[in-house]
Structures are given as structure tokens and as C-alpha cells.
Specification:
Radius of gyration: 22 Å
Structural class: alpha/beta
Number of helices: 17
Distance between the termini: 27 Å
Shape: globular
Helix content: 40-55%
Number of strands: 15
Largest sheet: 7 strands, mixed
Length: 409
């Protein structure tokens, strides 16, 4: 299997030299353990590796955490630490007494459940990082940096990245970013995604929710994938799955907990009273969306009914990954008001709001930027806007509105 360098490597190494405990969360099979085992090989200090997937280790960690740390002394890498939150108070004591940078490397697949335990025991003592499936920058082997709508930064980026056309972009969307496929370890995409889903349902979903009807949950996740890039509609998902809306909301919470989906919340402030409140639903991996919604190949997906929604999903996920991989929190929203004015993405930072529209076109019209004027009603300054599209090069309508190819993210 070919190891592909991950964007998070440098971020993790830099923060490990500062923080005593680092916690890397994210779904299974996205490469958390592989990356940290690789970083262990490069370290000067010997570090022990222990996984709580091992039931003997898990039992000791839960029932006798003190003994666990007598046997597994820091510096230590504890994999799947969500199985034993009993370890957290002991990590806290050690961190408070020693303050040794890099003593604890932790990974976990159950983000929210894990965060809760961390917040109670390790608030301010642990550095939290999030990893998802591979970004296009990682797959192409180019530097990862947080995506910003700034002409000089984008021009520099355009020199590093190879331009691709729309069919190639949809091939990326269709293939997704699972390391097992990207590295060439496996070539059967359907088999990889099928086992990925069944592993999730059989292990992690049941771990969180107890007994669950596997076939019904499969129906549910498929219904959710069909709505990716759209406002959350519990009724539609519930009706497709033959469950009630409360159950649909609870099950979406499980997918969010496990790092499969994320939400983009609507931007609002005191001035914008007419905005709607429903978040939009996105999957971190568009290959999973294409698999669940049963598209046979990238060309059919490109020409099909979901082509716009899945392009938006891919673009938003790539922006989020560019921040997560750099260890930076993104402040990203969308806008829609009761007059149906909508902006796909609004990025907030440095007192500015940068509006972005995502369009499946290589030659966008300047009229697409007119909706950006709603930002002028807010107390914040309107930053540079962009149409993120399938153009083959970086251009601009004027100094305030750029045309940015999605392959540049």
C-alpha cells in the first residue's frame, strides 16, 4: 500500500511540540491511525502504541485506568480512546503535574460523545483536531492552506495546481477521498463503500444507539445522501425511511457524531431579521454520496439530477477540509431570506463577510454576483466575493468579484 502524505502531518507535529495532549477525531478508515503510526516512526523518542479496539486493553482502561497508565507510560498513542472516557481524569492529572508536550496522542471516532468527555475532564488541556477523508489538495500532492477569497493567494495557488475540466472534476467527486481507494490499496470502489457502511452500522451506530434496524438505517442514510447540499428536511427523510421525524433527527445526530455529515448554518444577525433558520446538510465524502445514491459512473452523475447539489457538497466540504487540515476553525455559513435571496457560502473573518456562489458553469455571468448586495445591510464590511465554478482559469468580473475554479481550493 502506498502511503500518501497527509496535510495534517505538519499541523499535528507543530502542535505536539506545544500541547501535552492532542486528540484527533474523525470517522473510521480516513487514515488517523496510519498517519500517527507514520509520525511515530519519525520521532526521536520511543512512543508506545495501544488500541482500545483490543478488548483486553479496553477492559483494563475502563476498570483500572491507574494500572493502565502504569503499564502504558507516556509518551503514548491511545487509539479509539472514546471507548474508555475513564482515562481522561488520569490524563488531566498527568498533564497538570508534568506539562510535557506530546505526552498523549489520542484518536477517536465518536466525535460528540468524545468531546463531551474531553470538555468535562480536559478543558483547556487538550488540542482538538479533526480529520476527514482526503481533500483534493492531498490527493494531488499540493500544499494545504485555509481557502480564502484573496486574489494574490489564489494566483499563487494557481501556479501550484494543475487545471482540470468539468468531467475530471466530477471524477474526483464520484471517487471521493477514502485513503484505501486513493492509495490504490483497493480498486473496487463499491466494495470499499459497502464495507465502510456495514462496519459503521454494525459497530459505531449500534455502540451509540443500542439496537438498531440495520436495513432501515441503510435506507435512512441513503435518504440523507439524496438531500446533500440542501436544507435539512426531517419530514422527507422520515417519510422515505418510514420512521418519525424525531427519529430522523436523532439518526442525523448519530451521523454528525460519527463525522459522516456536517451542517452549514444560516448567517444571521440583529439586522437580518428575515433569514430562515434551517441548516443545510453536507457529507464530508462525496464518493459516499455517489455510492449511496447509486450513480454508476462520474459521467452519469455529472449529467444527472444531483449534479448541482453534489458539486455544491464537494465544494463546501473541500473548503471545510482546507481549514480542518490546517488546524484552524472555519467560520462558514450560508444565507437565505424569506424573499428567497440565497448565497451558497458566506465566510466570516477579520470583520468582513466574503460571499460565494457555487455554479456548474465554466462561463459564469456577472449577474450572479447581484445577490451579494444583501451583505451591505449587515454591520460587517462586504469582503471580496467569488463565483466558485468549473472554469478552467482564475479570472475576475471586477476587483470585488472573482471567478474561482473549484479545483483551486
Amino acid at each position: 500500500m502506498n502511503y500518501i502524505k497527509r496535510a495534517m502531518e505538519n499541523t499535528f507535529k507543530r502542535l505536539s511540540a506545544e500541547f501535552p495532549a492532542l486528540l484527533l477525531t474523525g470517522p473510521r478508515q480516513v487514515g488517523k491511525t496510519t498517519m500517527l503510526r507514520k509520525l511515530m516512526e519519525e520521532e526521536n523518542t520511543p512512543r508506545e502504541y495501544v488500541t482500545l479496539d483490543d478488548l483486553n486493553e479496553r477492559e483494563m482502561a475502563k476498570n483500572d485506568p491507574k494500572l493502565f497508565f502504569q503499564i502504558h507510560k507516556p509518551p503514548v498513542f491511545i487509539d479509539e480512546v472514546q471507548y474508555a472516557p475513564e482515562l481522561f481524569p488520569y490524563i488531566k492529572i498527568h498533564v497538570d503535574e508534568r506539562h510535557n508536550p506530546g505526552d498523549f496522542w489520542l484518536t477517536g471516532s465518536q466525535v460528540f460523545k468524545l468531546m463531551k468527555g474531553v470538555q468535562e475532564s480536559l478543558a483547556g488541556r487538550v488540542c482538538l483536531l479533526s480529520m476527514s477523508s482526503m481533500s483534493q489538495a492531498e490527493i494531488c500532492g499540493v500544499a494545504t492552506r485555509p481557502f480564502i477569497v484573496e486574489i494574490d493567494s489564489l494566483m499563487a495557488r494557481a501556479k501550484e495546481v494543475e487545471a482540470i475540466d468539468t468531467p475530471e472534476l466530477y471524477e474526483r467527486i464520484f471517487n471521493g477521498g477514502m485513503p484505501a481507494l486513493t492509495s490504490g490499496q483497493f480498486t473496487d470502489r463499491r466494495a470499499v463503500y459497502s464495507s465502510y457502511i456495514s462496519t459503521y452500522i454494525d459497530r459505531d451506530v449500534k455502540e451509540i444507539s443500542g439496537t438498531i434496524d440495520s436495513l432501515r438505517f441503510m435506507k435512512f442514510i441513503t435518504a440523507a445522501a439524496a438531500l446533500s447540499g440542501q436544507k435539512v428536511n426531517y419530514k422527507t427523510i422520515a417519510d422515505s425511511t418510514e420512521i418519525d421525524q424525531l427519529k430522523a433527527k436523532e439518526w442525523l445526530g448519530i451521523l454528525e457524531t460519527l463525522g459522516i455529515i456536517f451542517y452549514l448554518h444560516p448567517y444571521s444577525n440583529n439586522v437580518l431579521k428575515r433569514t430562515i433558520s434551517k441548516p443545510k446538510l453536507y457529507f464530508y465524502d462525496t464518493g459516499l454520496v455517489a455510492y449511496l445514491t447509486k450513480w454508476s459512473d462520474s459521467e452519469t452523475l455529472m449529467n444527472g439530477a444531483m449534479s448541482g447539489a453534489v458539486l455544491e457538497n464537494y465544494t463546501v466540504a473541500e473548503i471545510i477540509k482546507s481549514y480542518n487540515n490546517s488546524g484552524v476553525e472555519p467560520f462558514i455559513y450560508y444565507y437565505r431570506d424569506k424573499d428567497t435571496k440565497e448565497i451558497d457560502v458566506i465566510m466570516e473573518g477579520d470583520g468582513k463577510l466574503c460571499p460565494m456562489e457555487i455554479k456548474k458553469t465554466a462561463t459564469p455571468a456577472s449577474q450572479l454576483t447581484r445577490v451579494f448586495s444583501v451583505i451591505e445591510k449587515t454591520p460587517l464590511v462586504r469582503g471580496t466575493g467569488a463565483i466558485l465554478c468549473t472554469s478552467d482559469k482564475l479570472t475576475a468580473f471586477n476587483s470585488d468579484n472573482l471567478v474561482v475554479p473549484i479545483w483551486l481550493i
